[in-house]
Amino acid sequence: MLIGVQPSIKQLPVLLMFKPRQYYAPQWSAGLSIVPRSRLALAVTPTPLYRWRAPVIDDSVELWIKRDDLTGSTLSGNKVRKLEFLLYEALKQGSDTIITCGGLQSNHARATAVAARQLGMHSHIFLGTNDPDTDPGWNGNLMLDRLAGAAIHLIPPDIYEDRERVMNDLAADLVRAGKKPYVIPEGGSNALGSWGYIDAWREIIENDAGEIPDFDDIVFACGSGGTPAGLALAVRMSGKQTRVHAVNVSDHPDTFHMRINRILDDLGTEERSEKLVDLVDGYSGRGYALSRPEELRLLRDVAGTTGVILDPVYTIKAFYGLCEEFRKNRDRFAGRRILFLHTGGLFGVYAKLNELVETVDDYQ
Ligand SMILES: Cc1ncc(COP(=O)(O)O)c(C=O)c1O
Fold first, then answer.
1. Statement to judge: residues 207 and 325 lie in one domain
2. C-beta separation of 255 from 220 below 8 A
3. pLDDT value, residue 9
4. 269 domain-assigned
5. Quick count: other Cβ atoms within 10 Å of Cβ 53?
6. Alpha carbons 216 and 353: distance in angstroms, whole number
7. Is the pLDDT of residue 359 over 90?
8. Ligand 1 mean position to 76 CA, how many Å?
9. Is residue 254 part of a domain?
């Protein structure tokens, strides 16, 4: 089912603020086979990084937070860092239409649709849903997709499995119609997109004021693999000893190792995901984008005590996983300095409004 009203727009000149900027890759990344030289400035960076006192994790651990939920407003979260490189490439190739995919409430699809429109391009987004014949309405990320005039293709899970072919077929149709499409894979997770998090690691360790210490561990949610691929490789290349823990919110860990390895291959490195990334399994709960009451209670607790709003699909599962591991293995955690990476997803909270309200009694 195709939903959304696609306004006809003229190809607008790229706004001044989005003019391509030269990109100076860190020296330690010099050996990679793909090293971008330019990107768009879409994300508000550097994002804040500070000591964080959050529920469950007591002071036996030194917890910090990196606020990549603050990379922007409608263009916020981890995807914007990847899009800086991917959309630069799309513009360089003269594209007028971006094609991508994700779950019904995909943050990546939303950020892509909004950024594409700001850059004067059309977007087609394929969203996986169990009920592709029912209009899912205007809610959360989907509302922003619709406001930004994306062409939204609702597809059932079996077709979503075949998403790369589906996107390439549409691209071929658009070429025949005289358009210039550019396909971005799920989550922006390919070699070029992973540069968003190679560079984010540079941002974390660049420490001119000497205020940011080295971290023993970095913890975050893993959804399509681009964030762990970029971060883990950057940690290794930069010579830091930080352990990278990617909390799996959907597929089997082997699937993620395979995806991350494909990105590492494309970047021309022999490093292997199995060595670089600790894929923390057991916290996908009821499954992708489905919440358990205990996750939503923790989301409320974190928000109510720290003012940081985690999202229900990714970051709360990562933080819930961190809390559970801490509860189970206090001794192993004692004295560690841990960085929690908040990868965004705020608009997903709106899609969970009813479930969140149901947790209200516990708090009043
Ligand atoms: C808010 C949020 N956090 C984390 C992730 C996972 O990042 P990645 O897809 O790079 O593994 C995603 C997207 O999948 C996301 O939208």
1. yes
2. no
3. 54
4. yes
5. 11
6. 36
7. no
8. 11
9. yes
Annotated catalytic residue within 29, 76, 95, 106: 106
- Looking at this protein, which amino acid is placed at residue 298? L
Same domain, 270 and 144: no
Domain interval for residue 91 = 79-188
Confidence (pLDDT) at 18 = 73
Which residues are CB-contacts of 216 (< 8 A; sequence separation ≥ 6)?
241, 242, 243, 336, 337, 338
Whether 244 and 170 map to the same domain: the answer is no
Which amino acids bring their CB within 6 angstroms of ligand 1? 77-78, 107-108, 187, 189, 221-227, 311, 314-315, 343-345
Length reported for the chain = 364
Report if residue 341 sits inside a domain: yes
Taking the model in full, what pTM does it have? 0.95
> In this predicted model, what pLDDT tens digit does every residue of 65-92 receive, in sequence order?
999 999 999 999 999 999 999 999 999 9
**Domain tally, the chain:** 2
Mutate to test the pocket of ligand 1, among 79, 104, 244, 310 (most ligand atoms within 8 A of CB): 79
Domain with 85 in it: what CATH number? Answer: 3.40.50.1100
- Catalytic, 106? Answer yes
Give the number of the atom of ligand 1 that is nearest the alpha carbon of residue 189: 10
Q: If you measure from the C-alpha of residue 227 to the centroid of ligand 1, how many angstroms do you get, rounded to a whole number? A: 7
Tell me what the mean pLDDT of segment 80-108 comes to. Answer: 97
Per-residue pLDDT band at 364 (split at 50, 70, 90)? very low
